Amino acid sequence: MVSRRSALQGFGLVAASGALGILKTGTVRAQTASAPPRVVKIATSAESKPLAWGAIGVEPQGYEPDLLRAINAKLPQYKFEMEGVADIAQETGLATGKYDMACGGYYRSPERAKQFIIPDNPMGASLMKIYSRKDSPIGDMKGLVGKKIVPVTAGGGTYKFIMNWQAENPGYKLDVTASSAGVPYPDRLKEVQNGKFDALVLPSNLGEQTVIENQKLDIVASEPVYSNNTYMLIHRSDKNKILADDVNGVLLELKNDGTMDRLSEKWFGEDIVKYMKAPA
């Protein structure tokens, strides 16, 4: 016969065991709820000041890195790790999955949309401008007729823009030469300064104004002759579809709350947000 005391002791052991089980289960849930954030590897431009710069081992700086930090602040489930990468290596690393995301003032294109995930909301806008000498300023594309234009990278965004403009304006013949020389744009600005060329057509988010001021060049920039949205590219995978959706929503928030305006003024000295086109 089992005594009342023994029965109570047995019940106590069962209750304690059950409570321990609940505690263990609760511990597991707590650990799940506080799971570490997912690390997102991001390739940023290494030499495109003020858009982004900072080589491997150097904390990236500029408009896009600051915008990425603002995005990450609103998405604590992720930990963004940025690394400055040469332009030619960004899309290669993204395609192979070495990076989850790449930011470098990218335009949306059918080829990129097929290969990568591209959020609907842009990061900014690339403003195409004409750089010419102050004593002979060129204010628009028609003003380039008969002028010596700095060669543009074959297949690049500037080359495509000029070719499209030429096709739409056949009455204005521009003397454009494609180049693969990869001459740095500060050297190109000097070539305009010394008269080798009359004008340089280039997106204004690469830091031209800083070069002009620091080197005291007598160069002036036109008003934008063209603008295009710039986007982040995301490695195409199932898990990155959620990442893309999360980032897309935050990009719209940061545009609406003025964060993009502030970062634009900070890094470019002008408001690029007003040139951003609404997603199609």
Mean pLDDT: 86
List unreliable stretches of 5+ residues: 1-32
Q: List the secondary-structure elements in sequence, H or E.
A: HEEEHEHEHEEEHEHEHEEHH
| CATH C-level class of the largest domain | Alpha Beta
Q: What is the number of E strands?
A: 12
Task: Characterise the protein shown here.
The protein has 280 residues and is an alpha/beta fold. It folds into two domains: 38-125 and 229-275, Periplasmic binding protein-like II (D-Maltodextrin-Binding Protein, domain 2, 3-Layer(aba) Sandwich), CATH 3.40.190; 127-226, D-Maltodextrin-Binding Protein, domain 2 (3-Layer(aba) Sandwich). 41% of the residues lie in helices and 21% in strands. The chain is built from nine helices and twelve strands. Strand 8 (152-153), helix 5 (157-168) and strand 9 (178-179) form a beta-alpha-beta unit. Helix 2 runs antiparallel to helix 9 (259-268).
List the helices and strands and how they pair.
Layout: H1 4-33, E1 38-45, E2 47-48, E3 52-53, H2 63-74, E4 78-85, H3 87-96, E5 101-106, H4 110-115, E6 116-117, E7 124-133, E8 152-153, H5 157-168, E9 178-179, H6 185-193, E10 199-203, H7 208-214, E11 219-221, E12 226-235, H8 238-256, H9 259-268
Parallel strand pairs: 1-4, 1-5, 8-9
Antiparallel strand pairs: 2-3, 5-12, 6-12, 7-10, 7-11, 7-12
In short:
By secondary structure, the chain is an alpha/beta fold. It has 9 helices and 12 strands. Mean pLDDT is 86; it is low at 1-32.
